Each structure stands twice: as C-alpha cells, then as structure tokens.
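Severity: low
Component: inverse-folding endpoint
Summary: output formatting inconsistent between runs
Steps to reproduce: submit the following structure tokens with default settings.
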C-alpha cells in the first residue's frame, strides 16, 4: 500500500495495543480493506466475500488470515472463525454496511452488533477517506498512484450494557448505537482531514 499510494494514518495510537478488538470500517472502494491491512498497527482479520477468493488471491488471502464469508446465507463456520479470532485476542475487521456503497454508515447490518455483543470486544471506528476522490490514469478503477488516502482511527468504545444479551431488541439497540458513533467519527474525520466522506 505504501509503495502504490501515500496513506496518511491518523490516530493509530487509539487502537488497543493488545486484546480483542473489532475495526468497523466504512467501505467505498476495493482498496479500503487492503489499505487497512497494510497500515493498521496490528494484524487484521477481515470478513471478505467469498467471490474475492479466486485464483492466486485465494491462497494469499487465506495465508494472511482473512476469512471467507458467504453473504447469501448465515455462514456459521465463518462466524465461529471470527469469534475465534476475538477469543484469541486478535483483531477482527468488518465493513458493517456489508458491501461497498456510499461509505457513510447509513445502512448498518446487524453483524457488527452481534460480534460486539457476543465477544464484548471494543469497537474501533475507522474512516478511509480519499480512495474515491479521483480515478487513476493508468488504471481507472484505482485511485491515482502515489495519491493520498487518509486512514483515521477513532476512540474505541463498548457496545451494549455488558450483559451479553443478543436478543433482537438488544441487537437493534446496539445497531442504532453503532450507527450513531460510527457516523459521528466519519464526520469528525472528514472535518479533521478536510475531506468530505463519499
């Protein structure tokens, strides 16, 4: 990532230096996940759609600990793997909107709330800004080479009341709480960097 672009990483000190943590990342471009993998202060295990595990990418992604998820069904195997990452004190990365979109955390799915409530791990909001500002001249699907991309880490926070309840009501309330905190971080990151979220 640092060879192709000029990532500016802000607030990485906010990420817990040890123990389980969940990175909740906005998602507007296909480089957002690799950018986090390459710049985060600790190894991150992302939930990645199975369609990305093709050709030589399959053994590479598996080799660096990424988790293949089938978005078309409740994938119990990968849920267990993701919880295992947190139980071992690792870092789980999630795009809580479920897919690339506006990247504004406006439509959160309940997966992030489930993992946060079930594990008790703190959630660290992360804003990736600048990956969709301009198109590259060589490869239009990518940002310009050596272009700046900002990666802004927010303060970790706990979700729920600490009871570990995962009822529908608890998940709904946690999702509302998450949306409010993540949207607030995204807006603050935009003001701080001078880049409006896309």
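Observed output (run 2 of 3):
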């Amino acid at each position: 990532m640092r060879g192709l672009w000029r990532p500016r990483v802000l607030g990485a000190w906010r990420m817990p230096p040890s123990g389980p943590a969940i990175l909740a990342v906005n998602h507007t471009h296909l480089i957002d996940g690799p950018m986090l993998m390459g710049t985060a202060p600790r190894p991150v295990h992302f939930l990645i759609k199975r369609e990305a595990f093709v050709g030589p990418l399959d053994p590479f992604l598996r080799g660096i600990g990424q988790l293949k998820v089938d978005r078309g069904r409740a994938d119990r195997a990968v849920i267990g793997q993701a919880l295992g990452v947190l139980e071992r004190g690792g870092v789980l990365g999630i795009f809580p909107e479920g897919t690339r979109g506006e990247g504004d955390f406006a439509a959160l799915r309940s997966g992030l709330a489930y993992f946060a409530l079930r594990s008790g791990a703190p959630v660290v909001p992360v804003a990736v800004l600048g990956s969709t500002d301009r198109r590259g001249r060589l490869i239009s699907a990518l940002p310009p080479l050596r272009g700046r991309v900002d990666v802004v880490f927010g303060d970790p926070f706990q979700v729920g009341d600490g009871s570990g309840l995962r009822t529908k009501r608890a998940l709904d309330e946690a999702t509302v709480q998450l949306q409010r905190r993540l949207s607030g971080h995204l807006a603050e990151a935009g003001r701080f960097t001078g880049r409006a979220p896309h």
